[in-house]
Amino acid sequence: MPNQVNHEPSNEPSNEPQTSRRTLLKMGLASASTLSVGGLLAGCGGGSDAVSATPAPAPTPTPAAKISSFALAVLPDTQFYARYATSGESNQYQRHYGNEPFAAQTNWVARNAQALNIPFLIHLGDVVDQVGKPEQWKVADSAMQVLEVAKLPYSILAGNHDVLNDLDYNGDQSRGTDAQRVLANEPYLQWFGARRAQRQATFGARDPSGFHEYHIFTAQDQRFLVLSLSWRISDAGIAWARKVITDNPTLPVILVNHQLMNIAPDAVTPLETDYGKMLWEKLIRDNDQIFMTLNGHHHGAARLTKTNNFGNPVEEMVVDYQMAYQGGNGLMRLYEFDLTNKQIKVLSFSPWVPMKPADTLNAFDRAVLTEANQAFTIDIDFAKRFARFNPTFGVGQVTVASSLVEQARAMVLKGYTEPAVVEPVVPKDADDYPKVASTVAHWRFFGGADGAAVAPGTRIADVTGANPLVRDALNVNGVKNAEAGDIVWSTDRHRLSSAPGSVSFINTDKNVPRLSYFVTDAAAAINAQTFATTGYTIEAFIKINPAWVNSKHAWMNIMTRDGKRGDLAGFNGGDAESPPLLFAISSLREVQWEVVPDVSGARGGLASWSGEIIAGTWVHVAIVNDPVTHDTVMYVEGAPVLRNSSNVVGLATLSARSPWVVGGGSWDGERADGFFGNIGEIRVASGALKPAQWLTARRS
C-alpha cells in the first residue's frame, strides 16, 4: 500500500454528496442491497371436507445445463491482518473477535477449493505491514501454510511493505529495484523464498533475484500461466519475465503485480500510474498472451480495458481493501472463468465477517459487496482472444453444475444476515444534540455571513462558557503571508451536526508557512486538564478540501495542545519537536490521534489511526478513552477503526497555561501544519461517551 481512509439528504441545504453512510471508505463500500435467495414454490390450496380435488402433477424441472468453469481466489493486501494479529499490537483481532481474518481467508479457500473448482490462489503482495517485525511474518507464514497443507497451489509476491527499501517509481531504474537489494538481508526471501515456492505443484521458476516467480496451472483441460512480479522490478527482471512468456508461447498469461493501476478520488475511476505505464510499454503491450492484470497497493477497486499492439483487450484490475473497516474486514475476491458462457465473473466477499461474534457486528460488516466496481462480469471469447498464440484453446470438460460465484455467494451468506442499517436522524434545529454534563469544552463555529472572513481576534464561544477560542493574530510565531480571508465562515456542515455552519481554512501552505488558527486563552481551565482518571471523549466534524495535496497539506492539524513533547519529563519517543497531542491528517489523509500520556517515568507517543479519508466529504470523528482500561478507540462515521492504542492514561500537558489550538499545530516551538478544509463543531468531554451521547445523535 502507499503507507496511508457520505450521507442521506438533510432537511437543510448541504454541499455534501448525497451518498450512503457506508461509503466513507475510499473503496466505496456502499449500503447493502437485500439479497433474496429462493426457489420456485408450487402450492395448491384448500378444498373442503365434502369435496376433494386431485392436484395436477408438478412438472419435472429441467436440469440446468452444466458448464465448463473454474475459479481463482485472490488475496489483496493482507498487511493489517498480519500486523494486528500480533502481540506487539495487542492481538486486536483475537481480543475483539476470537479469530483472525488472514487465517479465515485461507481456511475458507482450502475448505471450498474442491466444491468451487479452485485450482489456484493469487496473493497481490504487502503480505505484512512492517517488514522488520518477525511476528507479522509468522502470522502470514501460518495463514499461507493452510494452503500448503491442503495442497492448494498459490503465487505470492513482495509488496512495498515486504521489502527493506520501498522507494516508489520515478523513472529511475537504478534505484529501488530488486537489482539494488542485498538479497541475503530481505525478510521476504527468508520467509517466502524459492524453496518454499517450489512446494507448489504449479511452480515454474523464480528469477535470479528470487523476488519474481511464475506458475502454470491446469483447469478444465486448459493451461494458464500466472506471472507474479514483486515490488519494483528491475530491467533484468523484466527481461526474465519476457523470456518466461517466450518459453511458454501458447499459454494465456495473468500478470500479477503489487502496483500497476491506481484509483481516482471518486473511488471507482481507474487511474494509470507511471509504473504501470512503464510495464505496459516494456512488457504488456507487445505480449499478446497477457490478457489480464491484477494488482493491489492502491485503496479500493477499479478496472480498465486497454488495447494491445495486436488489437486485443487487456483487462486491468486493482483491488485493495486494507483501508476498509477493520483493515479490510477479511474481504477478498473470486474470479470465475466461465469458458462455456465466455465470461469472467467477479465476486468480492468476506469469509471472515460471518465468523465474527454477533454482538460485534455493525452496518459495516458486509459479507458480500454488490457495487458495480466490486461485482461485475467481463465478456471474453476466450478462444477468439487467445487464437493468435493458441488456436487449440477450447472449452474443456463440462463438469460444473452452475455459476461458481453464485455458489460461493450462497455459501458465504448461508446462515448470515447482515446487520440492519439504522439510518441516523438529521437534526431538527441548532439545539438538537445530546447535552452531557461532563462537557469540558464545546466549540460551534458559526455566526458570520457565508464566505465572509473570520476576523483576527474573533472569539468562538464555548458552550460551557469556560474556554472560548480566539482567532490568533496574523503572522506571529513563524507564520508568514497569512491574511484575514484565510479563515471564512461557511454554511457547509456535516448533515448530522446541529450547528448551522463551520469555518473554512483556505490558502494553507506548509511550505511558506501560511496558516491561520484558533487558540484558547492562556488562563482557560481546559489547558490544565489531563483526563488521567476520568478518560475522555473528543469529537470533531471535519471536511478535507478537495484541493488537498500532500506537498502542501500533509500532517495538517485539526487540533493540538501547545508545547514540545520532548520537554515532557521522561519523554523518550520520536518527533520530540511535536506537540504532546496531535489530532491531525497524515500524508496519506488518515486521521492521526497521537498523544503522550499523563504518566510518570518513561513515555512516548501512543496513536490511533483511521483509514484514508475521502477529500471533499464530511466525516465525524470520535476519540473515546475508557477511564478503567484506558483503551483508546477512534470512530470514523460511527465505525471503530482497527489501529488503536491500549493503556493510554490521560493527555499530557506542558503547563496549565499551554493553550489548545484548533486548525493548526506547532513544530519546535513555531506554528506549523495548518488545516486545509472545514471544521465544524468540536466537543471535549471527560468520560467515555456512548454513541447515543455523541453530537451525531439527537436530544432526548
Task: Give your account of this protein's structure.
- The protein is elongated, with a radius of gyration of 28 Å.
- Helices cover 13% and strands 24% of the residues.
- With 700 residues, it is of the alpha+beta class.
- The protein contains 11 helices and 33 strands.
- The protein starts with 68 loop residues before the first strand and ends in a 14-residue tail after the last strand.
- Strands 16, 19, 20, 22, 27, 28, 29 and 33 form an 8-stranded antiparallel beta sheet that branches.
- The chain has 2 domains: 345 residues, Metallo-dependent phosphatases (Purple Acid Phosphatase, chain A, domain 2, 4-Layer Sandwich), CATH 3.60.21.10; 255 residues, Sandwich (Jelly Rolls).
